[in-house]
Amino acid sequence: MKYEQTIILNNGKETFIRNGDESDGNVVFEIFNRTHEETDYQLSYSDENSIEPEQEAQFLKEKALSPNETELVAIVDGKIVGIAGIEPVGKKYKVKHRAEFGISILKDYWGQGLGKALTKACIQCARAAGYDQLELSVVAGNDRALSLYRSLGFVEFGRNPRGFNSRISGYQEVVYMLLEL
Q1: What is each CA distance from 87 to 1, 35, 107, 161, in whole angstroms?
Q2: What's the order of all strands across the beta sheet hosting 98-105?
């Protein structure tokens, strides 16, 4: 699924959002690990990353060729500063109408509109891929993310009070959200 768009961030910086590709493997691998070190709101810790840069490159190559999955990168001043993507919940008939969304942005770029731009881009990709529903999970204490998702039309459909077990704060409540496309 092909995606390209140039946007202007809140700070006036031009940002190019496009599909990640095989050549981005090393950088995306580093961004993934760094973003997972910068916040306790991600699904995993950087030391739990089970793939190598070469596998990341292959992952990006496959996503770029997929008709219903995507992994986008956001580029500011020539460097990748954020990643976001969608993938099917499953391939079986009963769930193939649903996609999952994930996002990671370097902390230096928080609060500049990049999260909103990447989320909107993934919503566009999910619609283009023919999904009926886009889903995500977010830590209940992540007020900025919750506010962003609600502003884009996501609604809460459940909570898991012990959804994540943080090394830092213990159990974290996870909020499940969806957007009907």
Answers
A1: 12, 20, 24, 25
A2: 4-8, 14-19, 70-76, 79-88, 98-105, 133-139, 170-180, 155-166
CB atoms within 10 A of CB 109: 19
The tens digit of pLDDT for each residue in 39-95 reads 999 999 998 988 888 999 999 999 999 999 999 999 999 999 999 999 999 999 999
Q: How far apart are CA 142 and CA 139, in angstroms?
A: 5
Domains plus CATH for the chain?
A: 4-180 (3.40.630.30)
Give CA–CA dist 116/107, Å, rounded.
Answer: 15
Any idea how long the chain is? 181
| Contact of 74 with 83, CB cutoff 8 Å | yes
| The overall pTM is greater than 0.90 | yes
